[in-house]
Structure formats: structure tokens, C-alpha cells
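User: Last request for today: this protein with adenosine monophosphate, please.
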Amino acid sequence: MCGIVGIVDAGGVSIQLYYALYALQHRGQESAGISTFDGSNLHKFKGNGLVADVFSPPVLSDLKGTAGIGHVRYPTTGANLPENIQPLNFQFQERFISIAHNGNLVNTGELRAEYEQAGQIFTTTTDTEIIAKILIDAISNSGSVEDAVSICMHKLVGSYSVVILIDGVLYGFRDPLGIKPFCIGKTEHGYMVASESVAVDALSAKFLRDVKPGELVRIDSEGVRCMQIAVAGKCAHCIFEYIYFARADAVIDGVLVYDVRRQIGKKLFEEDPVKADSVGAVPDSGTAYAIGYAEGSKIPFVESLMKNRYMGRTFIMPTQKERERAVRIKLNPIKAHLKDKSVVLVDDSIVRGTTSKRIIEMMRDAGAREVHMRIGSPAIKAPCYLGVDMPTREELIASNRVEEEVRRSITATSLHHISIEALIEAIGFDRENLCTGCLTGCYPLPIDGEHAKPCHVDFVDGTYQAKLGSFEA
Ligand code: AMP
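Assistant: Here's the final one, the structure of the complex with adenosine monophosphate:
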């Protein structure tokens, strides 16, 4: 989970990169960074914190140039160390290279060992540096970035949407299974790629299309060209992007996230109807689901929890006690809406169960008679190895408990998770084209100690140069 963006625009890129990262802030709050190229030099700035805290007007005006990339980080691989903040920047054969990555590799250890044995040194603990090393090594051997990306796709196992700036040329590529989202837009004087369409919207740019799984996009001052490097037998779009991670107004692989959530809300009512005085959401992640539930059930949507929008994420607090206290500060129940009421409370997911338990306690303290919990995802049973920060099986409340045990543990009057079938129907893809690892424990790639159903990937080796064509939206 991270957000990435790359822009080439004759009008300058730093402000646009800044606003694009702002729009992607929900994808990572730990750190933010931008690198730009001005025709002869690479300018870079990065730091810990939110986009608005890291960058100031003087910093942005120093980020000169008409090509650049940016990143917001939510750590999955690699500790919270200053050297792990992206983009990572390198100088090689008089070329400046900057790289940023969203996703998570599962063969980091082997790749790192392979490159260390060949004499390479690493200065970070991120998997992104491995991608950079493979690319740079391959470029030095073949000279062609297209070949280097192909070699990368042969070697990397995991999820990856990547932006690379090589001097003034921007490259973006997406893993052959299309696990993490990635899209292309047209800015006023150029083109962009970004993790989510909301970054394109934020710049008043024109959304063109998603980057295809296994595709490489090359953008320079002349325009954009795309080529297919690898073709897999299926996709494995991350189901959790639709459930929780992406912004509700994002369109990912042709599907509006808000509509998926609203549709699931309706199905939650159909699957397990209940009589209640009102339907409310755990804001903001449960809102679109709750609106769907209210529509389906004809029970009025009434907000009964107010969110303090200036509070950071509770999920990432290190200890259970801190997480519990943080929930109370983040959410305040509206007593007048709860006293003696029976309410349906809708949220996107239960992970450890801390949030739901604490919220239900608060609602009961505020006078609620019944709290019927409805959840927009099926029970989360297994960890994610492909980019979503999910705890271990031991910490996941539903990994070894049936729904009734989870209900008791969070003290809800009733509990229902959406079925996998209804979730998949709401997204609208075939099941084989979605990664459901966190729900089923079956992954689309080989992962040590886990059950997997990997699929075959064909490479367009040797001939793909010929396929380099003009961009078609
Ligand atoms: P909990 O059950 O207390 O661990 O937290 C679950 C809540 O955290 C859900 O309702 C989501 O809104 C949110 N959430 C779920 N997955 C993640 C994640 N990977 N990172 C941050 N927040 C998450």
C-alpha cells in the first residue's frame, strides 16, 4: 500500500505532483517524496509525514523541471528508516534514475542474495531498491529500458506498479497480474500515470485508461507510447482495494469503487435483513456501504458517529492499548441519535476486531439498545503478502473463529459479513481475475508455506520492440 505518480508536462511538474500526492494521501501517511528532472539535474525532496507537512512552497519551487515522480509511503517491506523513503534516487553512467513503487515482492530475500553475491550493495531495506538494481543492471547490459523491464517482470514475484524517471523520460509498468491499480491521464501539456484516478481528477486532467497488467508506458516530451511486455492467463486485482483501500471516488480497472460499496450495502441487507431504527456508518470507510444498506432496507441513514478528521490512522498504532484509546478520540457517538435506539452499524472490514469492539462499547455507553454490525468484506482469514498491511493469522480475529464467536468478542447484537459471492458480483469481475488471498488463504502467486494457484505468464520477448506503437486510449 503506497501511492505513486509520474508526470511529464511542459508547464512544469512539481505543483502537479504535489496535488496528485495530496489526492493519494489515503494510500500512505508515513512519508512523501518527489523527484524532478530539469534537463540536466535531478531535484529531490522527501521526508517523514503527510504531504502537506513535508512540502512547502520554497521546496516545491526548487523542484524544477518538466518531468517527475512522487510517492506516499505506507510501509509493508522495509522499516520506517529515512533511507527507505521513496523515490529512491541513483546516478548511473551519467544518467539520473529515480524510482518509486507500490506493491510488495515475495521473493525479495532470494533476489537480494542473488545480487549481493554478484557484488551489489544495498543501502535500504526496501524491495524497491531490488527493482532498481535489476533495472540498472539490465540497462547496463542491454542498454534498453524496455529489455530491462522485461527482465524485471521475469524476475519479480509479487505485486508492483512502478514509476521510473530516467533523466527526462518517465516509465511506468504494472505487474502481469495487475494486482495494484495504475492508470494513465492526459494533463494540460503532457501525460501522467498514477495509482488511482483520483490523482488525475485532482489535476483536472483527463482520465485515459488503466495501465494494462504487464504493460510498460513510456512518456516523454513527444508524448506517450505503450507496449505489452508480459501477458498472464488471468488477472489478480486486489479485492481489498475495492473493500477498503482505494478512495470511494476512484475508478479502478473500469469499476467505480463507490458503486461496489453501495451495491454491497444493499446485498448486506438482502443477505441478513434486520429491523432497526436507523442505519449508520463507521466513517468514512463504512459510509458508501451504509448508504446502500439504507437504500435497500428503507431504514433511514442517520449518522451516529462523528469523526475527528484531524486524527491520524488508529490501525497503525503499535500497541493494542494505544489503538483502543485512539478510537475514542477519533470517533465520538452522537448520544441523541443513539439513546434507546436499535441501530445497524456498517463498516468495511474487521481485522483485529479492536475498532468494532471499542465502537460498539461506545455506542452502548451512549444509550444504544441494539447494535447490529454489518461488514462490507467477508471475514478476513489470512495475511496479505502482496501489499496490504494485514497482521498475522494469530492477530486476525476471524482467522480461527466462526462468525458467532467474533460477534461475541466484539459484543454486537448481531453480526453479518458479506458473502464472497456477493462481493465478487458487486465488483463485476470473474472470481479468477481477483486476488482473494486475505479472504480465502489462496494466493495468485507462489508464497512459501501458503496455498497458491499461480497462473502462466507469457513474455513477448524479442518481438515486443516491434509492438512499440503510438498510444491509443
Ligand atoms: P481492526 O479490526 O481494529 O483491526 O481495524 C479494522 C478497521 O481498520 C477497518 O474497519 C478498516 O476501516 C481499517 N483497516 C482495515 N485494513 C486496514 C489496513 N490494512 N490498514 C489500515 N486500516 C485498515
